[in-house]
Amino acid sequence: MAVDLTPTPDVADLARRTAEFVRDVVVPIEERTGGVARSEDVRIELQRAAKDAGVFAPHVAPEYGGHGLDMRGRAAVFEEAGYSLLGPLALNIAAPDEGNMHMLEAIATDEQKERYLRPLASGEIRSCFAMTEPAPGAGSDPSALTTYAEREEGGWRIEGRKWFITGAEGAGFAICMARTSGKPGEAGGATMFLVDADNPGMKTVRHIDTLDESLYGGHIELVFDNCRVPDDAVLGEVDEGFRYAQVRLGPARMTHCMRWLGIARRAQDIAVARAAEREVFGSRLGDLGMVQQMIADNEIDIAASRGLILQACWELDQGRSGSQSTAIAKTFCAEAVWRVVDRAVQICGSLGISGDVLLGRFLREVRPFRIYDGPSETHRWAIARRVMRRHDAEATR
């Protein structure tokens, strides 16, 4: 089957309008705030403007106010939104809300969609995904999950501690992963629960100080202490949480890549503009061989990242698992985006490390991407295991 990577006319038009919106509306706000939106006023201002521009919520179904794009369509639009750190927030496609919307559309009941998905898709509320735990709990190895839920009359009681829960501050609800059978280290036995923010059993411990700051709602440590939820708070089926997580995982890896690819392009544009205007040693920076190499290497990393993203998205759109292709794309993009931004800083020299441009902020924001959604080392291990399994299977035929 041929792989067609050309966006449809509708997608191309939406991507163009998104690019114009980000440059004309979002970038000035980003420059005003230093790339960090710390107030609801900024979020509301951005999202209202995106709605007015007709580019809001490109990923959700039209019945929830979106454009219903498939993964390949999202690749084009999300990259344009990601040209600014605040672009994804404006379009309501920032993590973790975007991934949660995708999962809720796929597995929530009709009642849960009305209660959680509809207001989330409209930007009325935000959400978080409570999976990661302090060591020795779940992290790169989800099976280490220690948070547990016990059935009781009329519902469940959740006990456990989570941390690095992005967006939890001010979120309207959490999707909490808790063990309902088995022991830590066993592959199955997890269940997802919808926990409202006003549940007295879900408490904020602290706001974790981190290298990155642009993901809205911060990175929070939560404790679930005698957290009681009703039976209808179960998302999907009991003990099937790890399987449902795969619905979210592959697409979420790719949408992260799409958004950060936009920032890589932005960094390259800043560096190229500087190389074109700055004169040293009797010539423009951009005419010097070593600078030209960095510019060329940036173009190569950007193009290769886009190709890997589109290949993985095509597989996901075909209904394939995309495990290998998404792992490869995530690993490469996380490292390539860092390289691009780092080279851009180098090309710009003292300007690059100053506050006069946002390259320093970009550098801090993209570095954690090599850790979250699976560290590069974990993905490489998984990629190699699949290759070895394929070899072993072919050898026994």
TrEMBL record:
* Acyl-CoA oxidase/dehydrogenase middle domain residues: 128-226
- What does the UniProt keyword field contain? FAD, Flavoprotein, Oxidoreductase
Q: What is its EC number?
A: 1.-.-.-
Name any one GO molecular function: oxidoreductase activity
Q: Which Gene3D superfamilies match?
A: Acyl-CoA dehydrogenase/oxidase, N-terminal domain (1.10.540.10), Butyryl-CoA Dehydrogenase, subunit A, domain 2 (2.40.110.10), Butyryl-CoA Dehydrogenase, subunit A, domain 3 (1.20.140.10)
Which parts of the sequence belong to the Acyl-CoA dehydrogenase/oxidase C-terminal domain? 239-387
Q: Does the record bear Chloroplast in its keywords?
A: no
Q: Which cofactor does it need?
A: FAD
Q: Does the keyword DNA-binding apply?
A: no
List residues of the Acyl-CoA dehydrogenase/oxidase N-terminal domain.
11-124
Q: Which PROSITE patterns match?
A: ACYL_COA_DH_2 (PS00073)
Which InterPro entries does the UniProt entry name for this protein?
Acyl-CoA_dehydrogenase (IPR050741), Acyl-CoA_DH_CS (IPR006089), Acyl-CoA_Oxase/DH_mid-dom (IPR006091), Acyl-CoA_Oxase/DH_mid-dom_sf (IPR046373), AcylCo_DH-like_C (IPR036250), AcylCo_DH/oxidase_C (IPR009075), AcylCoA_DH/ox_N (IPR013786), AcylCoA_DH/ox_N_sf (IPR037069)
Q: Name one Pfam family in it.
A: Acyl-CoA_dh_1
Q: Which PANTHER family match?
A: ACYL-COA DEHYDROGENASE FAMILY MEMBER 11, MEDIUM-CHAIN SPECIFIC ACYL-COA DEHYDROGENASE, MITOCHONDRIAL-RELATED
Tell me its family: Belongs to the acyl-CoA dehydrogenase family.
How it assembles, according to the record, is: Homodimer.
Q: Protein name, please?
A: Acyl-CoA dehydrogenase family protein
